[in-house]
Description:
Helix content: 25-40%
Number of domains: 1
Low-confidence stretches: 1-15
Structural class: alpha/beta
Distance between the termini: 35 Å
CATH class: Alpha Beta
Amino acid sequence: MVKQKENSVHSRFMKTISVDQQVMESMQTSDGSNLWHRSFEQPVLLVFLRHFGCTFCREALADIAKIKDKIESSGIKIIFVHMTEDKIAERYFQRYELPGAVHISDPTCSFYAKFGLVKGNFTQLFGLQSWIRGFQSAIVEGNGVGYKQVGDGFQMPGVFVVHEGKIKDAFIHKLSHDRPDYEQLVMNCCEVRN
């Protein structure tokens, strides 16, 4: 069951969301564990990606690759959720210098829904701002243009910090091109080792 309410302390993107233990235990990770157990070992930055053909998904992978060592050395584990089979996902993680990334396959997007992530509408996915940001990301920043859709093209992404079975903070994308500050997100909610 997902419970959402606006949290007035944070920006319009932040929500308080509750996902039950059974759901988190069913989220099997590529390394043989599950989200519930991993969140008791250490805080988890749980990144729900758009489909791998999306420029903004590739942008997210590139952004996280740049800060992965810093985040994980501070005691936070990054786990990705994607919409394809593991072998395909692992090729993308390799391409974006994230070898050995821990991930969860969700081709039916059921975990996306359990975390309150919705299907995008036309404006969220294809509005003018998305085209402008898409050009910036694809061409200027070199993330490329996605021609092949690998997953549900309408599924919106989101990022959650999960610790001890509870969602401590979240960034819920309002538009497909929103760009979370991953470092700030984990710093806002977790006591991080330096």
